[in-house]
Amino acid sequence: xxxxxxxxxxxxxxxxxxxxxxxxxxxxxxxxxxxxxxxxxxxxxxxxxxxxxxxxxxxxxxxxxxxxxxxxxxxxxxxxxxxxxxxxxxxxxxxxxxxxxxxxxxxxxxxxxxxxxxxxxxxxxxxxxxxxxxxxxxxxxxxxxxxxxxxxxxxxxxxxxxxxxxxxxxxxxxxxxxxxxxxxxxxxxxxxxxxxxxxxxxxxxxxxxxxxxxxxxxxxxxxxxxxxxxxxxxxxxxxxxxxxxxxxxxxxxxxxxxxxxxxxxxxxxxxxxxxxxxxxxxxxxx
Amino acid sequence: xxxxxxxxxxxxxxxxxxxxxxxxxxxxxxxxxxxxxxxxxxxxxxxxxxxxxxxxxxxxxxxxxxxxxxxxxxxxxxxxxxxxxxxxxxxxxxxxxxxxxxxxxxxxxxxxxxxxxxxxxxxxxxxxxxxxxxxxxxxxxxxxxxxxxxxxxxxxxxxxxxxxxxxxxxxxxxxxxxxxx
Lengths: 286, 181
Known about the structure:
The complex is a heterodimer. Chain A is an alpha+beta fold. Chain A has helices at residues 8-21, 25-37, 41-60, 83-97, 143-146, 159-174, 192-201, 214-228; strands at residues 70-77, 123-128, 134-141, 150-154, 182-189, 243-251, 258-265, 272-276, 282-285. The model of chain A has no long low-confidence stretch (mean pLDDT 97). In chain B, α3 runs parallel beside α4 (102-111). The chains are: A alpha+beta, B alpha/beta.
């Protein structure tokens, strides 16, 4: 394969196209698995429609959901100068060419910028490392699921039971609104702000990710089982598949605090990564 | 089962929760901004209509609008305005996702209106059944404008709330409540 250097903004367009039009393989597998254990006939119809739609989106090169969301970018490795401008320009171009739905508005006037940018938009997180390359990962996330995000500053006395209760309530009270079966991102610990960030960052993990911490892994499994036996089901219409996966991230917190956050991703758990090499060539992955 | 929109009151009242339908005919889209505006001034083409909670991705090609992706949006955001909209415009059917409040269910029963659940996120499949035939209030932007679509075999749509006051979401909620009370 011949690799030619790509302009960063073009790489961002391709990255957004990949994320919006092709569901990551692991999410596809998780949906297949859900369909296999699903016993509800109505739920099966929903899952079938979901998988059918994902295939059509990929074949036609169209966004799988009309809510192409607001993208959160995670830049790691070598931080290229003016990367923010490149990402912004790429997003503007992608909005026009893919096309993406222009979603960003001023919070008070509700004026739409028309190109998915604006003050504070897009969201870009940076984590510099010594690597010679730059990774840009994107999660385009719709409002249906983002609107169901929750934070609780629990008391330490509430303990693990309190943490579990809060997570289960957040998912079940959201009902069909975040488009279940969802991927549930959970943050435990940190401070109010970092706790919310962890819940979203947990959604960067593939659904077949294995949590290296035994306590967290067991908690993920327990919540997965509880939520899938709740009966909420796909689109909240009843069934055995309410969540595709629960991911937990933790951080140390103040001895007087126990922050817990939940950020769900809809079944269309979109994400993609591009690696930009030192010579400007690119590699895409999901 | 196939249904044709606009629906008459008898047809709307005849639909029962759990039924799966495919819809032909005219649908109007509307979400937050359109609901607010339709309360303060007349909304053209909304009387007796099927109201689709949807902010589509549209593409203007050779002077014609093409529907690229058009799945349902979260209906609960329209909970506060919906009862008045249903009564004012005698809405016969709503298409959305996630369900709506008891107040909406009450208005639906009064007027004779059903709530049809489309598959959330199935935007490419649903767009296949839609052709754009007009747009009102385009100044609200692509997502919030009131698009007039012609639907052909739009679905599958599950009758999730009916004019008898029954709601699948309420039934499910009464079951899931025991998991987090």
